[in-house]
Each structure stands twice: as C-alpha cells, then as structure tokens.
C-alpha cells in the first residue's frame, strides 16, 4: 500500500482514521444532512492537492456541480484539467448532450454505457500522478431507474475499477430508498461506512467506530 491519504477536510481525517489507496467508502444518511456537500468538498480538496478525480454526477448534472462549488467559493473550473466528470441526469431534460473534453454524458438507465465510461476514466486517471479519487453522488438515484440487483452489480463493478486503479472511492446513498434487504447488502461492498444524521458524523472501519459532531458553514464541512 502507498502512504496514508488525507482528505483535507477539517476534522474528518480523525473520524476516518488511516485511509490508503484502494479504500472504498460508503456515505449514507437521510435527505438534507450534507452528504452532497461532503462529497463535493471531498472532490475539491483532492483536486487542490493535485489528485486526479472522477466525479459521477447522478443526482445533479455537471452545471449543477459547478454552481454548488461556487456557492462555497470552491472554483473547481480552475482545477478542471485533473477532473473527469460523468454526467447522468442532463440527458433527461431532452436532447443528446455531446461529450466535451473530460466531461462525458451517459444515462441513468444505461448502466452498461456508464461502466464503459467509468473504465475509460479510471484507466486515464491511473496514468496521472497522485492517488486517484472518485466520487459517485448518488447511487440511490440509480435505483429509481434500474432493478436493485443490477444496481448492486454496478456498485461492485465501479468499486473494482477504482480499487484496480489504486484509487479511493466515496459513494453517497440516501437511506430508505431501497428495500431493507438491499440496504443491508450495500455496506458490505465497502471498506468504510460513513453516516451523517444532521449533527453527528460517524465512520466504521474494521469493526471500529469513530464519531464527531459536524456542521456546514459557508466554507464547507467542519468536523469536531
């Protein structure tokens, strides 16, 4: 394994413990507790440190990602040379958006095409300097368009691609979207299970649990 990975988010590393390339993280919680804010800041801080990043925008499109980052004064456009984006929802508005540079478009109901583009991006980013970071926000949206068992296979394939590239993955998921048996299976695909409830963030890895209070400020997530 390579050296430990720091998220760059104030206080979060103390909760997560020692992350290394190859670690896969699941971030869950009810709606409106800050999952997307954390996922976006996780990406931005990685880009700031020069890490190549893949962001799969399933809940919001690429333009929304740009607006969301600007709300916190995170100017992601200035770091876009190391950012690859797979935009899933934009095509739902009609038309067929064309891939441009490092931004690729797919569809929420076309998981085969999604995984082809994940493979292209991870292979490309693997060749760049630094630990690759990948964020999938959010896996729960896939369940609105695909059978649950298929979504589980997609998550496993996605995790395999990131791990093979020596990357670190963060996947968000909103609790209560799938049946209970499916939701019990999802955490088993990951090394670390992070939970947010609106006031406390916790992480379970190797059977050990750490937690701390958190808040969302105009600068992002502050933990502790």
From TrEMBL:
<dbReference type="InterPro" id="IPR055927">
    <property type="entry name" value="DUF7504"/>
</dbReference>
<protein>
    <submittedName>
        <fullName>ATPase</fullName>
    </submittedName>
</protein>
<dbReference type="Pfam" id="PF06745">
    <property type="entry name" value="ATPase"/>
</dbReference>
<keyword id="KW-0547">Nucleotide-binding</keyword>
<keyword id="KW-0067">ATP-binding</keyword>
<feature type="domain" description="KaiC-like">
    <location>
        <begin position="6"/>
        <end position="100"/>
    </location>
</feature>
<dbReference type="GO" id="GO:0005524">
    <property type="term" value="F:ATP binding"/>
</dbReference>
<dbReference type="InterPro" id="IPR027417">
    <property type="entry name" value="P-loop_NTPase"/>
</dbReference>
<dbReference type="Pfam" id="PF24336">
    <property type="entry name" value="DUF7504"/>
</dbReference>
<dbReference type="InterPro" id="IPR014774">
    <property type="entry name" value="KaiC-like_dom"/>
</dbReference>
């Amino acid at each position: 394994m390579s050296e430990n990975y720091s998220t760059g988010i104030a206080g979060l590393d103390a909760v997560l413990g020692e992350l290394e390339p190859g670690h896969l993280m699941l971030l869950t919680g009810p709606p409106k507790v800050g999952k997307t804010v954390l996922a976006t800041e996780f990406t931005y801080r990685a880009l700031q440190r020069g890490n190549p990043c893949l962001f799969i925008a399933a809940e919001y499109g690429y333009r929304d990602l740009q607006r969301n980052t600007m709300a916190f004064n995170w100017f992601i456009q200035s770091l876009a040379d190391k950012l690859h984006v797979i935009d899933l929802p934009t095509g739902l508005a009609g038309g067929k958006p064309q891939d441009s540079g490092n931004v690729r478009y797919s569809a929420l109901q076309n998981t085969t095409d999604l995984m082809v583009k994940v493979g292209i991006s991870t292979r490309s980013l693997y060749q760049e300097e630094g630990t690759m970071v990948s964020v999938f926000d959010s896996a729960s949206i896939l369940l609105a368009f695909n059978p649950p068992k298929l979504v589980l296979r997609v998550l496993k394939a996605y995790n395999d691609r990131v791990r093979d590239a020596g990357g670190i993955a963060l996947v968000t998921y909103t609790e209560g979207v799938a049946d209970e048996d499916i939701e019990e299976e999802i955490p088993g695909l990951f090394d670390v299970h992070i939970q947010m409830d609106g006031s406390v963030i916790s992480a379970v890895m190797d059977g050990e649990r750490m937690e701390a209070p958190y808040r969302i400020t105009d600068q992002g997530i502050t933990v502790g």
